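Internal QA ticket QA-208
Title: Verify multi-chain structure generation after dependency bump
Assignee: T.L.

Test input:
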Amino acid sequence: MKKFLALFFALTLLASACGSDDSSSSDSDSGGDVAASTSDDSSSSDDAAPAPTTTEKEEEQLTFSKGELKEEAAKVVGVTQVADPLGPRGPEPRGTLDYGWHSSFSPKYFDPSGNPAASSPYATQYIIHDAMVKNTPTRNFAPSLAEEYTIAEDFMSASFTLREGLTFHDGTPITTKDVEWTYMNYSGASAQVLHDMLDRIEIVDERTIIFHFNAPFLDFLLLYGTTSSGAGWILPADYYQEVGKEGFAENPIGAGPFKFVKNDSNLKITYEAFTDYWRKNPGVKTINWHAIKDAATRVAAIKSGEIDMANVIPGTLLEAVRSDPNLQTISSSNVSFWLEFIGYDDPDNPFNDIRVREAAFLALNRVAINEMQSGGGGDSVGQWIPTGYNGVIDLTEDDVYQDVERAKELMVEAGYADGFDGGQITPLPNYFAMGERIISDLNEVGIRLTLNQMERGAFLGEINAGRDGTLTGVLVNISGAGGDAASRVRTFATCDGSASRICDPFIDLAFDQYQTSTDPDERTELIEAIQRHILDQHIFPYVYTVGHTMVQGMDVVEDAGEIWGQIPQYIYPGLWEDIHVK
Amino acid sequence: MFGIYIQRRKVIRAYFLRRLVYSAITLFVLATTIFGLVRLTGDPAILLTPEGATELERVQIREDLGLNDALPVQFARFIREVVTLDFGTSFHLGQSVTSVYFDRLPNSILLVTVAMAFSLALGIPAGIISAVYNGRWMDFAAKGLALTGMSIPGFVMALTMMFFFSVKFSWLPTFGIGTWKHLVMPGIALGWYFAASTLRLVRSTMLDVLSSDYVKLARLKGMTEQRVIMRHAFANVLIPLISLTGVNFVVMINAATIVEVIFVWPGLGSLLLEAVGERDFPLVQGIVVMSGTLIIITNFLIDLFYAWVDPRIRLTR
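Actual output:
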């Protein structure tokens, strides 16, 4: 049996080496237009701009047009995906990397079994854990713990083979039993669909496992192999069951490039290099993760050199870091704000008139909002579904622009020459300054609103209440959840969507067809048609795409463009084992 | 004589028991209030479930956390937790509330102690000097110091110091805990305001005392001015100063939140702020009740100290 597998593996390797159009070679999708130029190994684009040197203090715009993840997911179907050959292990890890995280830290980040629909936990999990399949800077859906995997052509099964000799940090071998247990005990984002679609798990041997589904599971790889769920991030089954959830959060063990050392009051977490990591020796010996909520403190810490990398510098403090020749900044734009007109389907609501909605869309000065909020590091062209999410329609400046005069004309045509009182506008806390900016833009065309400031928990409660919520007027919405265009439509735009405040027959009909279709082309068409409808009807007018500026000091060897935002739907540093300090 | 001794012991015991009962009632009222107030902030299941979660998933979370139980049941469970000092597991941290609290408590006590020491070290001498040199430039300088202390918000002081001492001159660390250097800026930022209030109290009390008859007599008897100030005048400042110190200690623990966030000091203030934002009922309840208990104990000890110092106090209800 072993000889047969070895022969099969060798033949597969040979086939992969000869193949040319599978996802392993699509490095063109590892960055997006400008971002591709920041990657040293981008064999993608011959006309990519040269990568900036470490002495250059250039701010670059990263986008998440990592592409068409869905297209890539489709490409891997029916073709065994084999891991890239391993490079040299590299020298012994050395040095300490101090990283300034921008919010509070929760020990729950150590445990992927309950991951929320957010990217924050994955910043920890890329350090301490590893997945069967994960996105990396050079390859999407890259086999990681898995040596190879195959998604069946009929989407009814997915088989994985673990690499040989894998161990967790405590030396325990990683087996398919751990893979099975991790999947079965996963309860975080997308858990429902992952469990509902599963028929059974077949453990062939200690290294080979097959997931069998009860219906074609087209989105399996998108959920299992990305930051859409933590089900593929493998936990030590025996250890976890022995210590329990709380015990695991206090002393986590994983299979990633670094192992947990200690947690000081959830404000400083120390990791140490795991020199038995399958891929290579991590570049640094120690990572100190500091949870520094206050942005001014993060800026002071990076300017003083106490930390080497810092997350999320707000627009108001950008000048302090941009003017410092010892720092590199890089911006990544990810999620978008959009407007929702609550109760717009009521004929008495002024926003019921498409001309009024279009006027609101045309009134917004997105460039100014971007400048004010993100120091220009965000994006002023886009739509409510972030660029880079699979299935999203990318828009251009021809589609998204400001035209105040036309907006005023539309208001007159709609019968609101003197404007109207639109009630209140409720932005996400603490984006109240942006709310004021929107008020001023809309006021210019006659839509008068007042600012409604809510506490974060109350705001999220209203968002998740959907049509049962009590908000009125206009909502400035945003979502940090990963996924794809379809998941966004499902949540925010269908009648039954858990956070939806709208009920549009066209959207629901088209989405029902999408859900029952097994034809990838048809599904793509339907999702695009839904997006076109939402855009043409101005149901969710786009505000701007948030730009997060990250900073790093000169002690980090790699250029900022090589580290930040290189992984789709993940704006934090990665891969951690590739980072070195001087 | 013996009878007086017995009488005195009875009075002290009665006073002690009275304070103990009042403390227990205060603690009960505190616990009940925080139990009710925290539940008015909303549904923690919304923050604990992923975006797009169904109502069914939120119901399950509430079930798991015991939030679906009737309020009296939840309250009874909470009172049992108060008595046993086991406040359950933090919703958003997944850690034992008690362990998280006691992990942070020493840090808060350390910071407040340093800030208090700074406020007294600055406020007392400045207040004495201001009173002794009343109307002269040293008095004006001290009053100016008091004014800036009470006018400048703590976070402004904190960030200004950080800019100069950390970023500009690299003399002190920007954030964190570990060495005495990490205490300097947070201690000053937190203690600065209270130094001002201490200064004002010492100054005004000293001015009253310095004009009293027994101080005049002490001077007439030929005592040195230094002895007059320290032995006779300052001694009378102690009682109100102790009262103020006790009050300041309590206020400092609350005021430390901003300083803790700015300097990433692992204290209880920032923990409570985080817990409120996350609607983490067990953590909020645990911190408030345990901190309230400490404050009640502190006040109780101060009351006993007063009663020991001043017999008139223990004879009143």
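Spot checks passed. The longest strand of chain A covers residues 327-341.
Status: verified.
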